[in-house]
Amino acid sequence: MFTGLIQALGTMKPLGGDSWQINCVSQPSDLIMQDMAYGDSIAVDGVCLTVEEVLKDGFIATASPETLRRTTLGDGETAQKYVNLEASLRVGSKVGGHFVMGHVDGVGRMVTAEQTATSWEMTFTAPEAIARYIVPKGSIAVNGISLTVAAYEPEHSQFTVAVIPLTYAETNLRYLVPGSLVNLEGDILGKYVEKFLYSGKGNPKVGEAASSDDITPAFLAEHGYL
């Protein structure tokens, strides 16, 4: 589990097969490298990977064919760009973003990035697999970065986030151009709410609401809300 607060930038180098070498390029990189050990989980552009070998300034991990197909890590340009890195959440650590699982729901594209007086407003497309979890003022992870949805346009399958200068400067968002692919993960809370409301009914359509008849005191008590 992660928080979506990026700790370093890195690069990825294919080693053949499913193995990749990830090197930290940010200085200092102590937040990532400190106490790193075999078996640790590291989010790489929002994708949870397992450390198989610790290097001086990075680590080696395996990205399965399924992971490469479903995320930007399989993009041919991955080896030429920076990736966001975050070590897994430690018990007792501050949660400054939101709970990010490192399980990417889908790949979107950046549409626009416009600088304002106080931030960068960035708009992305979202596939239907994640669009159902997007709500204004809700949380979303873009390349592993915890961001707040400023606006959502379901008719265009697009959402906009406001990125503060610090986040823009210290993550790979600043390297994106229109058309760039990004990993997207919806808020885990929305997924559990959907599961409770639609259990046994199939997946809801985007924008479909649950019947109020389904939400009873008994239902709330059963699922720990009362």
How would you describe this structure to a colleague?
16% of the residues lie in helices and 35% in strands. The chain has helices spanning 30-33, 65-70, 128-131, 165-170, 188-198, 217-222; strands at residues 8-16, 19-24, 41-44, 47-54, 58-62, 82-87, 106-115, 120-125, 139-142, 145-153, 158-163, 181-186. Strands 1-2-5-4-3-6 form a six-stranded antiparallel beta barrel. A six-stranded antiparallel β-barrel has the order 7-8-11-10-9-12. A hairpin with a 3-residue loop joins strand 4 (47-54) and strand 5 (58-62). The mean pLDDT is 87.
Quaternary: single chain
Q: What is the residue-averaged pLDDT?
A: 87
Main sheet overview: 6 strands, antiparallel, barrel
Q: State the secondary-structure class.
A: alpha+beta
Strand content: 25-35%
Summarize the helix and strand pattern as letters. EEHEEEHEEEHEEEHEHH
Q: How big is the Rg? A: 18 Å
Q: Which stretches are low in confidence, meaning pLDDT under 50 for 5 or more residues running?
A: none
| Total E-strand runs | 12
Name the shape in a single word: globular
- What topology, given as strand order, has the largest sheet? 1-2-5-4-3-6
Distance between the termini: 27 Å
Give the count of helical stretches: 6
